[in-house]
Amino acid sequence: MTEPTPKRRKFITFGETIALAALAISGAGLWLAWKDSGKDGPTRIVEQKQAVPLTLRGRPDDDGRALEIMPVEPGHGLQSLTVTVKGGSPIDVGSDGMLAASDLERALGDVEKKSGAVSARVNARYVEAGADRSASRDYRIRYRWEGGGLFNGRSLRITGFSR
């Protein structure tokens, strides 16, 4: 005769309990995320770039007969530039940033013909990240006079540009 097999009760182990709890929590999180997904629109992940103030630099060109003025930051696109020397009339430089020494000489007027520096107000309109912006700041333009003699006049040469 055979003995009847005893009925065994299967208990849920501790590991299985934790797995079921994790499954329930994951399901609840998925449901909450799905429920809230249509309310706010797409999530914006990219940060907005902060505007960088316009700073200009100048480099004498053509042996000082011109001054190339350009933005330091490569993301700034120059649209127009106006240089006003103290006591002089404004010089429209344009978007190429080339200030001719002859224009500066006319703006200086009847100053003493010696080397030196002059304060100038630079007004600029530029584009940054697709937005039109404007800036105004004081700079120093350094120059020297050269030439002269019996029949030649003196001419102005630009030697530097700084804040």
Description of the structure:
The structure is a single chain. The protein is α+β, with helices and mostly antiparallel strands and 163 residues long. It has a domain at 56-162. The protein contains 2 helices and 8 strands, in the order αβββββαβββ. The chain has helices at residues 14-36, 101-108, and strands at residues 56-61, 66-71, 76-85, 90-92, 98-100, 116-128, 131-147, 154-162. It has a 5-stranded antiparallel β-sheet with strand order 4-3-6-7-8. The longest helix is centred in the N-terminal third of the chain and has 23 residues, at 14-36. The radius of gyration is 36 Å and the shape is rod-shaped. The mean pLDDT is 82.
Would you summarize the structure shown here?
The protein has 2 helices and 8 strands; from the N terminus they run αβββββαβββ. By secondary structure, the protein is α+β, with helices and mostly antiparallel strands.
List the helices and strands and how they pair.
Layout: H1 14-36, E1 56-61, E2 66-71, E3 76-85, E4 90-92, E5 98-100, H2 101-108, E6 116-128, E7 131-147, E8 154-162
Antiparallel strand pairs: 1-2, 2-5, 3-4, 3-6, 6-7, 7-8
Q: Which of globular, elongated, flat, extended, rod-shaped describes the shape?
A: rod-shaped
Beta-strand residue fraction: 35-45%
User: Helix- and strand-based class?
Assistant: alpha+beta
Write down how many β-strands occur, each being a DSSP E stretch of 2 or more residues.
8
Mean pLDDT: 82
Structure annotation, total helices: 2
Secondary-structure element order, N to C: HEEEEEHEEE
Largest sheet: 5 strands, antiparallel
Q: Can you list the strand order of the major beta sheet? A: 4-3-6-7-8
Radius of gyration over C-alpha positions, nearest whole angstrom: 36 Å
Q: What is the terminal separation in angstroms?
A: 110 Å
Enumerate the spans where pLDDT stays under 50 for 5 or more consecutive residues. Answer: none
Residue share in helix: 10-25%
